[in-house]
Amino acid sequence: MARHAEPLPPIEDEQAFGAMFDRFADAKVVLLGESTHGTSEFYRARSAITRRFITHHGFTVVAVEADWPDASHVDAYIRGRPRPLAPEKPFRRFPTWMWRNEEMRSLVDWLKVHNAGATPSQQAGFYGLDLYSTAASMQGVTGYLARTDIQAAGDVRGHYACLAAYGDDLADYAANLIRPGFNSCEDEVAAVLKILTTRGPATGNEAHFDALQNARVVVGSEGFYRAQVKGAESSWNLRDRHMFSTLLALLEARGSTAKAVVWAHNSHVGNAAATDMRDRGETNIGELCRQHFGSAAWLVGFGTDRGHVLAASRWGAAPEVKAVRPSLPESHGALFREVGPERFLLDLRVPDLRRVLHAKRPQRAIGVLYLPETERVSHYFEASLPDQFDAFVFLEETQAVTPVTDATRNLPDNHPFA
């Protein structure tokens, strides 16, 4: 491993750091992971790689593990498009710090400057893949139809009335599904998607595409919560399949030459078939991209040994800067800690590396929650690294992201973080 670990330049040297990943730039899709949702270095490293891919290799899609309506505000800002009607203030729902942070703000501002000098077809767009924005997505659909088809808008409001009372949190809806005689909203939200699909304008209408994606989010969100109580299919699988289908729709909408960078957690980006997710019958974006794109998809994982992370102790709680414990002795992180360089890249296509790293080891996954007191049970899973990823970035000691707060005053009014 020491022979094949390629030392990485400091992330601050963005050109040199990004150039280390040129070997993956011929791909249709490059998926960039993270082992925690609240680590500054992961955002900055992925930003450097993304900038390099956009400026030197023609990538035009940045698709992230965020809600479609929120990300649409970023896309409107960086591409000079009309701002979406909903939500009024994006990235305000828990976990606010996951995208509304200074590291992302730097990338958003860079994308705006880059796009100002590019033709519309060469501009880089910013898109959300997730499905939690039920209320905002319903508003996006009805708002679009109110401007374009008054009769259809009325029909859609009638269909969406089934879910509208629950807002973005469909936990009460899921609870009602187990009550005798309670009818789901499955057919109602599917009817809206059919209306938009059958009445859609010619290809290239971005406003219609935005509404269509919002309708797909509502269908996916309803199905996600229904699956949690019905148990017919894994809600995890429904979520990742939704994110994958959104990625395919984006690539189709941006044209045959479009190439995408995807930002999501390692648990979404790495091939699920190489982890103990397979024992639970779960898939993810990484596995679906591997099956669909083959060698035109590159999966890159990111990890750390210790440092600090911004995370909460329970869902909905305020974030805290928490100390990340050193990796467990038998884990990938502990092995990487012994290799030498504080920052390095492992190209896992190398046969020697595939051989020595093939056996499964514990791998840490910290999401928006971090519970160090139950770390082994709460945050580790088993994975065969070279079957999970094509490459892995190890940053030995990392620090927490810096959230953008309401006290920030030096942002233009139309900035998505203002």
Notes on the structure:
With 418 residues, this protein is α/β, with parallel strands linked by helices. It has 16 helices and eleven strands. It has helices at 14-19, 40-57, 68-79, 102-116, 134-148, 150-164, 171-176, 186-198, 206-230, 235-253, 266-269, 285-293, 332-337, 351-356, 375-379, 385-388; strands at 6-7, 29-32, 61-67, 125-130, 260-263, 297-311, 320-324, 343-347, 361-364, 380-383, 391-398. Strands 1, 2, 3, 4, 5, 6, 7, 8 and 11 form a nine-stranded mixed sheet that branches. Strands 9-10 form a two-stranded antiparallel ribbon. Strand 6 (297-311) and strand 7 form a beta hairpin.
Share of residues in strands: 15-25%
Q: Count the helices. How many? A: 16
Please state the oligomeric state of the protein chains shown: single chain
Characterize the overall form: globular
**What does the main sheet amount to?**
9 strands, mixed
Number of strands: 11
**Residue windows where pLDDT falls under 50 for at least 5 positions:** none
User: Approximately how much helix is present in the residues?
Assistant: 40-55%
Average pLDDT figure: 94
What order do the helices and strands follow?
EHEHEHHEHHHHHHEHHEEHEHEHEHE
